[in-house]
Design brief:
8 strands, globular
Length: about 200
């Protein structure tokens, strides 16, 4: 399985043997994370506590990778699982766009792990997948996630009203993006600062 390397981070697809580490973080940080995520459907298995559900989740990510529609990565620092970053809903044709989502273990928050991971993922998206654009959508009050894109100087595109259902509520999201042209102009700066 392909790994993407930064200065400190390694991004790679999650596999069943990652369940214990992933589950520990998801359970320990549950309240901190779930307020920013779509509500889990009732009567559906919980991948954070059920190994079989996690296996299905890993298989779904592998299928997306095979189809070229999404690339999910665990974030690891010196072998320690720290969070996830995903490039999903990739659209080809005239759009050539992907959506970036991420979360980090509360213990690793504020240590520059996520900005570095976003730069590693952007390099992959633009230089290997040849996308034209990636975008990140963030709930306005999620100051921690917004700090990531602000540190990177990503372009703010405005607020999409009631954009996604998050924890049972239709939430506004501020949209940020970077295009391949902007990546070309800023690659050296971003790599020097973060990789």
């Amino acid at each position: 399985m392909e790994s993407l390397l930064g200065r400190r981070v390694m991004l790679r697809g999650l596999v069943l043997s990652d369940f214990e580490a992933w589950s520990e973080v998801r359970v320990r940080c549950g309240d901190w994370l779930t307020r920013w995520e779509p509500q889990r459907l009732a009567n559906h298995p919980d991948p954070s506590t059920e190994r079989d559900a996690f296996a299905v989740r890993c298989s779904a990510r592998q299928r997306e990778r095979q189809l070229g529609t999404g690339y999910g990565f665990g974030i690891f620092v010196e072998g320690t699982f720290c969070g996830e970053i995903n490039l999903s809903s990739i659209q080809r044709g005239p759009f050539q766009n992907g959506y970036v989502g991420y979360w980090v273990d509360q213990r690793w928050a504020g240590q520059g792990i996520m900005p570095e991971s976003v730069v590693v993922l952007a390099r992959f998206a633009f230089e290997e997948l040849h996308l034209h654009r990636i975008q990140i959508s963030i709930i306005p009050r999620n100051a921690s996630s917004r700090r990531v894109v602000e540190k990177l100087g990503l372009r703010e595109e405005g607020t999409a009203l009631r954009y996604l259902e998050i924890n049972g509520v239709w939430e506004d999201h501020v949209r940020y993006a970077i295009t391949s042209e902007e990546w070309e102009q800023r690659r050296e700066e971003l790599e020097a600062n973060w990789l």
